[in-house]
Amino acid sequence: MTSTTAPTGVTRPWPTALVLATAMFLVLFDSLAVATALPHIGEGLGLGPGSLQWVVSLFSLSIGGLLVLGGRLCDLWGRRRMLLTSIALSTAACLLAGLAQGLPLLLTGRTLQGVGAAFAIPAALASAATLFPEEPWHSRVFSIVAASANSAGLAGAVVGGLLTAELGWRWVFLAPVPVGAVALVATYLLVPPDPPRASGSARLDLPGALLATGGLVALIYGVGQFAETSSPRALVPVAIGVALLGVLVVVERRVADPLVKPRVVRSRRLVGSCIAFGAHSAAYAAVVVIGSVYLQDVHGLSAAGAGLVLAPVLLAAMISAVPAGALTRRFGSRVVVAVSLALCAGTLAVVAFNTDSSLAVIMPWLIAWGLSAGPVYVGLTRECIGDAAPEDRGTASALFESTTHVGGAVSIAAYLPLLGAGFGYAGVEFIGVVVVAAGAIATFLILPGPGAPRRQEPVPGR
Predict the structure, then answer these.
(1) How far, in Å, CA of 208 to CA of 69, rounded?
(2) What are the C-alpha distances in Å from 177 to residues 98, 216, 221?
C-alpha cells in the first residue's frame, strides 16, 4: 500500500486523521491552560485556594475515573457516535465554564470537560486503529494523534497564559468553542458511520462500570491528596479505591458481558504497553512536575517562567513523534519504544547528575529527553490498540490511557513526600531513571517482536 492510497473505509485520509487529532487536541488543551489561569479565576470570582484546587481536580478525577467506562461505551455504542457526543459535550462544557458567574457552574463545566475527554480519547484512538488498518497509514495516524496530544499540552501552557493576560481567563474556555464546533461538523462529514449493531449484542455492565469508576476516582483522588499533604488520612480513599477495584475483578468473572473482557487483558501487547506507558508517566512526572518545582526552588523562577523553560521539552516530544510512525514500520514497536525509554533514562540520569549546574547545562539534556520521549506514545498506541479485536478497541484504548493517570498520580505521590523528607532533587530524579529503565527492559521482554502473530496472546505465566 503506497502512501497515497486511502485506508479502508476512508475516502479522505489526511482530513480524517486531522479530525481525530483535533478531537484529542480539543479535550486536552484546557488540562494545562486552566492551571495558568487559576490566579485570575480566583480574582474574578472571589475564590480562595481551597476552592480553586477543585477547578483542576474535578477535571482530573472525571477523566481518570471515567476512561474505562468511556472505552466500553465506545465499543458498545459505536466509535463515531461517541466521538460526536464527546466533542459536543466538551464544546458545551467549555462554553458553560467560560460563561460561569460563580463556582458551581464553573465546576460543572470542568467536570463535563473531563467526562467529554474520557469519552473522546478512547473513541479517537479506537477510530484511528479501525479506520486505518493498513500501513503506512496505521503508523502515520498514531504519529499525527500523538503530535496533537503533545501540542495540546504545549499550547495550553503557552497560549493559555497569553489568552489570560490579553483577553481574560474566560477565553481559556471560550477559545476552544469554535474549534469544537468545526470539529463536530468535520467529524460528521468525514468519519464513516458505525456498522450496525448485531442482534443480541452485549450490554453495559452497570455494576462493573460503577465499581471501576468509583475505584479509579478514589484511587486517583487519594494518591493526589497524599502527594499534597503526606497525611495518612489520604490513604483511606486509596484503600477504598483498591478495595473497589478488587471487588471489580471478582464481579467481572461472574457476569456475561463484563466491562473489561478477559481476552483484552490477556494480550501481551496491551500488558506490555501499559507497563511501558506507566514507566514513561513516572519519568514525565519527574521531568515536568518535579522539574517545575526544581526550577522555582533552585533557580528562582516563577511558575509561569518554569512553564516557559519546560515548553521546549514538550515541543521536542511533539517533533520527535512525527517520524515515529516510519520508525515503527521499519524496526517494530518493541525496538522503537524500548530504545526511546532507554534514552529517556539516560538523559534523565544526566539531568539528575547536574541538578547543581546552571540552566545552560541542564536545558540541552531536558530537550534531549523530550526528543527521546516522542516515539513512546506512537509505538505503544499502535501496538496495544491495533492488537485488540475491533469490538474491544475502545476498552483497550481506555485501559492504556488510564495507565498514565494512575501512574502519574502514584509517581507524584511518591516524589513530593520524598522531596519534603530531604531526599533531594537528584535522588527523586534517579527514582524516575530506575522506573523508566525498568520499563525499557519490560518492553523488550513482554512486547512480541514484529513477526509475532497479533491478537490475544497470553501474558507469560498466565
Answers:
(1) 9
(2) 10, 29, 29
Q: DSSP strand E in 48-158: where?
A: none
Which numeric CATH code is attached to 264-452? 1.20.1250.20
Q: Does domain 11-192 have CATH number 1.20.1250.20?
A: yes
Task: Give the per-residue pLDDT at 457.
Answer: 41
Q: 164, 171 in Cβ contact below 8 A?
A: yes
Fold agreement (11-192, 264-452): yes
What is the distance between the alpha carbons of residues 330 and 311, in angstroms, rounded to a whole number?
Answer: 30
CA distance linking residue 195 with residue 181, whole number of Å: 25
Please answer whether residues 7 and 13 qualify as being in contact, where contact means their C-beta atoms are separated by less than 8 angstroms.
Answer: yes
pLDDT of residue 84: 95
Nearest to 382 by CA among 326, 424, 422: 326
State how far the Cα of 269 lies from the Cα of 215, in Å rounded to an integer.
25
Q: What was the pLDDT predicted at 118?
A: 93
In this prediction, residue 139 carries a pLDDT of: 83
Low-confidence ranges of the chain (pLDDT < 50): 1-7, 456-462
The x, y and z cell numbers of residue 293, run together, are 518545582
Q: Identify the burial level of 11 via C-beta atoms within 10 angstroms of its C-beta, where 0-12 means exposed, 13-18 middle and 19 or more buried.
A: exposed
Cell of 189: 462529514
Domain ranges in the chain are 11-192, 205-258, 264-452
pTM of the model: 0.85
355 neighbors 361 (Cβ within 8 angstroms) = no
Listing DSSP states for 113-128 in one string gives: HHHHHHHHHHHHHHHH
Q: For residue 100, what is its C-alpha cell?
A: 460561569
